[in-house]
């Protein structure tokens, strides 16, 4: 065949930008970050090797680390399932074949698209403030509202409500999944007079299980990385009483507020391991849920 | 669903004393001064913040389109030693959380003297750092019939000519999807500007919005909401214009 050299040359020419980026922005930093996680580094002097100290401190003595894990898991455990239930519910409503489905799909998706923006985080601060809209609605029903954000036992739920509001992306994936379920299954069930909830448990859920799983893993990975809303709603502190101190806010503050770069690197590696476990789970089971986009629209 | 967004829009037009204490959306008088006042409320005008955000966003989108389509073309259409290995590595970088590379990247850019410039926000995009778009384009390029490349090759086209004249024109949906999403994500990005930009003159719109929170004592809620609304406008315009593409892109690729 035409010489391999020429083929390689043109291959690597096209790959060059990515290759440079891969070494300078990915692999290099990953290795450096692993190294830094075994050091004490405040950016003034050189990193000082301290072995496993950062990790030992993290797991045995750093109570804020355990607090941040607790806050983050609390968020993940509530936000992800509730968002998925909402997404599936609305997807099933839309799948009933409303004529205006396109419009509704768009409206339901819009919050997901805007969700990352600071404007929405600022809006959320106000909605849940002591004189905010939420409390005004409660007042209509004669319920005395509280400062949802300033109260440490409720503040995380403002983030969870925000997450539920942004159910659009998993909803679209559910919608695509629902379209893939053969309609004759339902027709057969209708002939047998199967009640609606039984159809849901016996047909929809099992047929949709791979998509549910896909969404679940994807959303868990996303949820662990939540940053901007928690940062803005707590005004950068993770407060009140560390109740909004999600993992990435803690990491950010350790690195860029207190310049404990070594310790923050160790935190980043623990996050990598957590996310890595979920990603591995996704890949290990991928043969059950992978489908290609050209199968159907 | 839309009530919070409508509330934001309504509050941006209300006089200060009407924002809280009423669930109704319609303002008694339209207080456009929230917009004019808010535009100049911070020590630096929003004209500067919008200019900064526009520079960063436009260059980042161009960087993503060029570098990611280059890499995707290599992965999808060319044969070379080590291709499978590199493709595997590229897929692996997709799942690495940004926070792991954040600190070394910061140290590197600091030593290069790039902190408080836009270079740390833009240059990585020209080096195909958003692997997600590579993946999306690879999937698309693979569906283009091989015969087209072969025919072009027989006609004496170089690999670059095939990429430019055959593959790219046939891949407009994939390129448009990538452009739209990178535009929206870069426009909304908060973490990277927060880390790299210090001087308020260099702030992007999201960073500027955050300054309003620190000013809350001055009770300029109307202005804060007005600027929040304006910050969402580009995203909403893109959303309305490309709604079909965005919705399809999400459903088929599973992205956020």
Give me a quick take on this structure.
Chain A: InterPro entries: ABC_transporter_permease, MetI-like, MetI-like_sf. The complex is a heterodimer of chains A (297) and B (256). With 297 residues, chain A is mostly helical.
Helix content of chain A: over 70%
Q: How many angstroms separate the termini of chain B?
A: 18 Å
Whole-angstrom Rg of chain A: 24 Å
Task: Please state the oligomeric state of the protein chains shown.
Answer: heterodimer
Query: Any idea of the CATH topology of chain A?
Result: MetI-like fold
| Residue-averaged pLDDT of chain B | 90
How many E strands of chain A? 2
Structurally, how many domains make up the residues of chain A?
A: 1
Query: What is Rg of chain B?
Result: 22 Å
Q: What would the average pLDDT of chain A be, to the nearest integer?
A: 89
């Amino acid at each position: 065949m035409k010489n391999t050299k020429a083929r390689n040359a043109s291959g690597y020419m096209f790959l060059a930008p990515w290759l440079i980026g891969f070494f300078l922005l990915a692999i290099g930093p990953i290795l450096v970050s692993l190294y830094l996680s075994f050091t004490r580094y405040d950016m003034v002097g050189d990193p000082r090797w301290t072995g496993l100290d950062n990790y030992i401190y993290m797991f045995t003595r750093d109570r804020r680390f355990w607090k941040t894990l607790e806050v983050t898991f609390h968020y993940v455990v509530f936000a992800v399932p509730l968002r998925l239930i909402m997404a599936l519910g609305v997807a099933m409503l839309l799948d009933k074949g409303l004529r205006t489905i396109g419009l509704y799909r768009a409206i339901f998706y819009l919050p997901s698209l805007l969700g990352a923006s600071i404007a929405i985080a600022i809006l959320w601060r106000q909605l849940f403030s002591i004189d905010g809209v939420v409390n005004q609605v409660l007042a209509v029903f004669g319920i005395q509202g509280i400062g949802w954000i300033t109260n440490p036992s409720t503040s995380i739920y403002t983030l969870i409500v925000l997450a539920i509001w942004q159910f659009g992306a998993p909803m679209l994936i559910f919608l695509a999944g629902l379209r893939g379920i053969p309609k004759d299954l339902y027709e057969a069930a209708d002939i047998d007079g199967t009640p609606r909830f039984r159809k849901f448990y016996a047909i929809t859920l099992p047929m949709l299980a791979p998509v549910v799983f896909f969404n679940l893993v994807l959303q868990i990975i996303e949820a662990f990385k939540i940053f901007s809303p928690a940062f803005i709603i707590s005004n950068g502190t993770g407060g009140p009483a560390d109740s909004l101190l999600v993992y990435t806010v803690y990491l950010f503050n350790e690195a860029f507020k207190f310049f404990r770069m070594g310790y923050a690197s160790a935190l980043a590696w623990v996050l990598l391991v957590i996310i890595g476990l979920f990603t591995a789970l996704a890949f290990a089971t991928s043969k059950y849920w992978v489908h290609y986009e050209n199968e159907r629209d | 669903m839309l009530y919070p967004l409508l509330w934001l829009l309504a509050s941006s037009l209300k006089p200060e004393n009407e924002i809280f204490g009423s669930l109704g959306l319609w303002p008694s008088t339209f207080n456009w001064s929230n917009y004019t006042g808010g535009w100049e409320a911070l020590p630096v005008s929003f004209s500067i913040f919008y200019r900064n955000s526009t520079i960063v966003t436009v260059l980042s989108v161009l960087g993503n389109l060029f570098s990611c389509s280059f890499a995707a073309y290599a992965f999808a259409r060319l044969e070379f030693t080590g291709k499978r290995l590199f493709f595997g590595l590229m897929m692996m970088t997709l799942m690495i959380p940004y926070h792991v590379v954040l600190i070394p990247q910061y140290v590197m850019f600091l030593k290069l003297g790039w902190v408080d410039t836009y270079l740390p926000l833009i240059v990585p995009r020209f080096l195909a750092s958003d692997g997600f778009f590579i993946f999306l384009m690879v999937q698309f390029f693979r569906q283009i019939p091989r015969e087209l490349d072969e025919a072009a090759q027989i006609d004496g086209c170089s690999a670059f000519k095939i990429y430019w004249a055959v593959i790219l024109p046939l891949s407009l949906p994939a390129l448009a999807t990538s452009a739209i999403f990178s535009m929206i994500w870069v426009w909304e990005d908060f973490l990277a500007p927060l880390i790299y930009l210090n001087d308020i003159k260099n702030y992007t719109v999201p960073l500027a919005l955050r300054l309003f929170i620190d000013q809350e004592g001055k009770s300029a809620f109307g202005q804060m909401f007005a600027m929040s609304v304006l910050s969402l406008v580009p995203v909403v315009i893109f959303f309305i214009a490309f709604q079909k593409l965005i919705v399809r892109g999400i459903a088929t690729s599973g992205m956020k």
